[in-house]
Amino acid sequence: MIKHNTLLAVALCSVMIALPSGAAEPLGSSWTDVTKLPDFFTGNWQSRTSFLDNPSSVPFTDQARAYIAKFKPIEDIPFAGPSCKTPGMPIVQRLGSPLKFFYEPGMIAIYVENSSMTRFIKLNGKHSARPNPTFLGESVGHFEGMTLVVDTISFDDILLQYGDLPGQGKGPFVLPPEAIFGPHGPNLRMVERIRLVDPDTLEDQLTIYDDAVWKQPYVSTPVQIFKRNRGEEGWPREWVCNTAETLIFDPGQGKTIEEDPAEVLKRLQKNDKH
Questions:
Q1: Which residue in 39, 80, 120, 266 has its CB near the most CB atoms, within 10 A?
Q2: pTM higher than 0.85, yes or no?
């Protein structure tokens, strides 16, 4: 009897060892996953496409149309201001300065050289029950094959482009007057699909959901393309902000001074009439 029980116990133990241990953890959950992830991490990535969107055929809501009708070219184009307020997502990633990706289990971080901000993407997690609005939003992501899908919500007062609407005005300015920027609604959500097109080309396809602005999801165009910088050019650098339109060189003082924003506006309006 003792011998039979012993053999039964050994058999059961063998069966338990042979049973599957459950589904594998999703990609991005451990340090060893770094060898399985697409190589976003070598060097840094520099935008090769415009930071502005092209015209969209997605219909606007009545609320957005009312805002657009009252939009005043030049006057309503936003200044960064002396505090160098960030434009927030998605424009902050498109302004030409490189992006640097970092990894640890459960997180991908993106250092945005423009504005020296770092964006944190929670991998394989959920959004907070009550996230605080920020300029970069709260991002959660997961991998679908080799594509990183990032869902971002909870935005502060970001610079949201409604589209490129020709005929709204002309004038020399860092932001074209044809591009109208406006407030977002409470349900703004951005979904990115980030993937490597080839070893040195990264693609970021963005879809914007905002039922206060568009009647259906807005697919941002063109698709944002970034090229990899390697070696010395691939190291992240410090970035210092200045507001170019309000900074002028004064020959009398022999130095750069900051103009009053109201005076800058007058100068831009004067130039716009010529």
A1: 80
A2: no
